[in-house]
Write a structure and sequence with these properties.
Length: 93
């Protein structure tokens, strides 16, 4: 009897901007830390509540316009934090 080959499951997450499902490693995690700070979590391992977004400014702007990051993280986010996130994403494109 041949050994059954199991395929490793790749974790997927949904982008809060465009709504597209992608592999977790392709997305960037926006994180609300236990202290209440909003940061980009590139490792995906920091503790706190996270929302995933494609590494593009367009997806970020769409998520900001529809307030999806605030809804996912259950917190209101000041404009300067969004500007900082946008600068950080623009530097990576």
């Amino acid at each position: 009897m041949p050994a059954q080959i199991t395929q490793k499951k790749i974790p997927e997450r949904k982008c809060v901007g465009c709504g597209e499902k992608r592999a977790k490693k392709e997305l960037i995690r926006v994180l609300r830390t236990p202290e209440g700070k909003i940061v980009l979590d590139r490792t995906g391992k920091m503790s706190g509540r996270g929302a995933y977004i494609c590494p593009s400014v367009t997806c970020l702007k769409k998520a900001i316009k529809q307030r999806r990051i605030e809804t996912s993280l259950d917190v209101s986010i000041p404009a300067e934090i969004y500007e900082a996130l946008e600068k950080e994403l623009a530097g990576n494109e």
